[in-house]
Every structure is written in C-alpha cells, then in structure tokens.
Amino acid sequence: AALDSPLVFGHNDTTAGNILEADDSAERVAFIDHEYAGWNLRCFDLGNMFCEYCGVDSMDFDLYPTRPERHSFLTEYARKASELGNEGSVDLKVLHREANVGALASNLHWGLWGMVQAEHSRIEFDYVQYSRTRLTEYFKQKKLLEAAA
C-alpha cells in the first residue's frame, strides 16, 4: 500500500540535544539547530524522532520507544494537529505506519550521511560505526515491515 505522508516543513534532525524544554512549566519545547530543516515528508520527522531515542554517540536500538510509548506520542501529535487544523491524516493507524516507514528512511539517511562524514568530517567521532549501526537497523526493520505487509 502506498504511503500518503503529507509534505511538511520538518526539522529533520530531532536529536535530544536539539529539543529544549521551556523552564516555565508551560510544557513547551523549542527546537534548535536548524541546518537540516526543510521540506520533507511528515513520516521522516516522526520516524526520526523515535530513532533518536536510541542515542547518538553510542546508539542502542533497545531504547527505541515501545509501541505504547509511540502510541502516546502519536496520540498527542494527532490531538495537536487537529487542534491546529493541519492538513493530512491524523488517524493513529496511519501515523503509526508513517512513523515505521519514516524510521526506515531516517536510518537509511543517517547511515549514508555517516559514510560521507567518515570521509570528510574533521570532527572526532566514529562515523563508520555510527553508519554501520544505522544501516544494520535499517535492513533489520525493513525485513520486519516487509514480513508484516
């Protein structure tokens, strides 16, 4: 089945370090570090958000949010999207599917990005291992999604 994820202006790099909580108990957040922001499918930011729970320096996909945790996040996302009158489906089943496909896209994107960085970046970081971890997870989750289809 085709994925009909709407085109949105996304952050595209929702690591924990790029999301700041307001200090006034108003339950607000601010997104910083927008160099990767741009037009993308909504599914990418949804899936990427969940992948980023697993860390950066030492990724551990055992930390990937459970289905109930993802459901809680997506329920709040759908509520807020409806409240704001945003276009696109806010059906939870659709959002779960988008997040799953978006996680695949995120792992593929950042895995390939890591390969490029390993060759060109001057930053001291194990980009090769990072890339290997993201691409391994991509192929693992791709098999699971294909089997479930």
Defining traits:
149 residues, single chain, two-stranded antiparallel sheet, mainly alpha
What does it look like?
With 149 residues, this protein is mainly alpha-helical. 53% of the residues lie in helices and 9% in strands. The chain has helices at 42-51, 67-84, 92-120, 127-148; strands at 7-10, 19-21, 29-31, 38-41. It has a two-stranded antiparallel sheet. Helix 1 (42-51) packs across helix 3. The longest helix has 29 residues, at 92-120. It is globular, with a radius of gyration of 16 Å. The mean pLDDT is 90.
Write the H/E string, N to C.
EEEEHHHH
Round the Cα radius of gyration to an integer and report it.
16 Å
- The parts where pLDDT drops under 50 for at least 5 residues are none
Give the DSSP E fraction (strand runs of 2 or more residues).
5-15%
Q: Quick one: how many beta strands?
A: 4
Strand order of the largest sheet: 1-4
In brief:
The protein has 149 residues and is mainly alpha-helical. It has 4 helices and 4 strands, in the order ββββαααα.
Write the layout of secondary structure elements.
Elements: E1 7-10, E2 19-21, E3 29-31, E4 38-41, H1 42-51, H2 67-84, H3 92-120, H4 127-148
Helix pairs in contact: 1-3, 3-4
